[in-house]
Amino acid sequence: MHRLVASLLIAAWLLVPLSGHAGGLSQPLIYFVRHAEKAGDDPKDPSLSAAGEQRARDLATALVDAPPIAIFVSPYKRTQLTAAPIASAVGVEPTIVPINGDAQQYAQDVANAIEVLAQDGPILVVGHGNTIPPLIAAFGARAPEIGEQDYDRLFILRRWPDARVDLIQARYGAPDR
Asked: At the topology level of CATH, where does 2-10+27-171 sit?
């Protein structure tokens, strides 16, 4: 059910008429998700649990109707493994953004990397509970709260040429425990 909700929200949002918004979108859509559930295999750089692997596949299903043209991840396995199914499905090599400083600096580094892209399709950012809120804020939207067990949130940001931003929150995959 959550997969269907995310897919329907994305598809409906893409159909919103652009009349009255001259020049199109400066960046059509940016998806933000926290990495999927992590395993207990490595305290410093864990991989994904079985539930996390399923959630990564669910993310690919949720984004199939409006797939990303670019994917940004952190140097940690859990973000890369979360992005792997959708990256494979759409043939996009994720860009690993190094962490140089705190979460705020990382968010700014990712935002800067997104800004230099050709602006012709959706972008996916797979981050962490402490990087997604400042990332969303860097694009002018109100930063959401992400709890320690929040793995099923999909934030979809749309920017307009007049600097307005819209942010919706959907859910995908199995509900959080």
From this structure: Rossmann fold (3.40.50)
pLDDT tens digits, 38-78? 999 999 999 999 999 999 999 999 998 999 999 999 999 99
| C-alpha span between 80 and 99 (Å, rounded) | 14
- Identify whether the C-beta of residue 65 lies closer than 8 Å to the C-beta of residue 11: yes
- The bridge status of strand 153-159 relative to strand 123-127 is unpaired
